[in-house]
Amino acid sequence: MSDFILETAGLTKEFKGFAAVSNVDLKVRRGHIHALIGPNGAGKTTVFNLLTKFLPPTRGSITFDGRDITREAPAVTARRGLVRSFQISATFPHLTVMENVRIGLQKKLGTEFHFWRSEKSLDVLNDRAMELLESVDLGSFADTVTAEMPYGRKRALEIATTLALEPTMMLLDEPTQGMGHEDIGRVVALIRKVSANRTILMVEHNLSVVANLCDRITVLQRGSVLAEGPYEEVSKNPQVLEAYVGSSDMNDAHH
């Protein structure tokens, strides 16, 4: 088994001659929390869309857990355990938090079992749903209608519904976006907790989050890899600092 759970080689996506992603070689080590950072327009979201098969690459390959998944259908890739948190977390706002997690569990079981048709088996799902909610500190919100939950807690619910699919690798798209300090702290602690026994690749703007959380960082600029390494190293790289000039992100993260 390779040390790297996910590898891309020469990954390229062109739109009408414009390269949104250009020749990206990404290697994500099994068990790591790996961040993809870079200024706006660097191609981070496009990379995520390529990895989850929302977009076909123009060129290049994607290997996950030793298999070439480049031309695979999105659902097949997700079933292999490569899951992006928002793919399924278009949570149902009018259902309770518990019901949302149960839907995630039913999706996981859907291909193999139909046992939740009997009343008794729903209890099995309920127990597991409650476990998942407690694991993301949402036990007390189980019966709350999702729309009425605080914003930061909704992100925790998205993570819980993603965990219901038992991913081996989770892709998190800006998990702390739009959050206040307290929520950020809570979500960082949550990501650290759920990273046990799995790999996480995240796109994140908040560099203090990245500095605190991530084992490795890949910096993208204009669709290409500008630098890769641990935060200490990357944050001192003159080219990276240059790329972030005009935004004081890098400096803020040091304080």
The number of distinct structural domains comes to 2
Major beta-sheet overview: 6 strands, mixed
Tell me the overall shape: globular
* Strand and helix order: EEEEHEEHEHHHHEHEHEEHHH
Structure classification = alpha/beta
Could you tell me the mean pLDDT? Answer: 88
Looking at how many chains there are and whether they match, the oligomeric state comes to single chain
CATH architecture of the largest domain: 3-Layer(aba) Sandwich
CATH top level label of the largest domain? Alpha Beta
SSE blueprint and pairings:
Blueprint: E1 4-15, E2 18-24, E3 27-29, E4 33-37, H1 44-51, E5 59-64, E6 67-68, H2 74-79, E7 82-84, H3 85-88, H4 97-110, H5 119-135, H6 151-163, E8 169-173, H7 181-194, E9 199-203, H8 207-213, E10 216-221, E11 224-229, H9 231-234, H10 238-243, H11 249-254
Parallel strand pairs: 4-9, 4-10, 7-8, 8-9
Antiparallel strand pairs: 1-2, 1-3, 1-5, 5-6, 10-11
Helix pairs in contact: 4-5, 4-6, 6-7
Describe the structure.
- This protein is an alpha/beta fold.
- The protein has 2 domains: 1-81 and 169-187 and 197-255, Rossmann fold (3-Layer(aba) Sandwich); 89-166, no CATH class.
- It contains 11 helices and 11 strands.
- It has helices at 44-51, 74-79, 85-88, 97-110, 119-135, 151-163, 181-194, 207-213, 231-234, 238-243, 249-254; strands at residues 4-15, 18-24, 27-29, 33-37, 59-64, 67-68, 82-84, 169-173, 199-203, 216-221, 224-229.
- It has a 6-stranded mixed β-sheet, with helices on both faces. Strands 1, 2, 3, 5 and 6 form a 5-stranded antiparallel β-sheet that branches.
- Strand 8, helix 7 (181-194) and strand 9 (199-203) form a beta-alpha-beta unit.
- Helix 4 packs across helix 5 (119-135).
- The radius of gyration is 19 Å and the shape is globular.
